[in-house]
Amino acid sequence: MHRQQGNGALLMVIIILLMGTALLHATRQQLSDNLSLVTDERHYILEYTDAVSALTWGERLTWHTAEGWYCQIQPQYTWRACLLSHASGMLLRGDSGSGTLSLYRWVSSLTGGKVSAVPQGWLDYCPLPDRSLCDDPS
Question: Which end of the chain is more exposed for a tag (fewer CB within 10 A), N or C?
Fold first, then answer.
């Protein structure tokens, strides 16, 4: 009768444990990397919805004609809607504060300081040829 030492079985258990540990480490690393992507996406979606809300809110405001950007702030949600009278037309900008995502919309003037959105006038970039006019209005 042969006496078994058990070395082969022990070696296989150790190899399986090492492979499991390596797999768990790789999975944890992948989840960690994807968590930062999800965080970035969440941040973008929040800024985007704030910018859309600010634009919609800005379309319902009464505006005064001024030179350069004229901004109004909604303090509860920190929305900011800004209007620029330009040779190309009137441009409405919506964001949630300085340094955040901005969306734009061409608007036309109505009586009493109200504006009306131009059909197909929605933009996710500043359309003005002079890029200095696109700088963050203060």
Answer: N
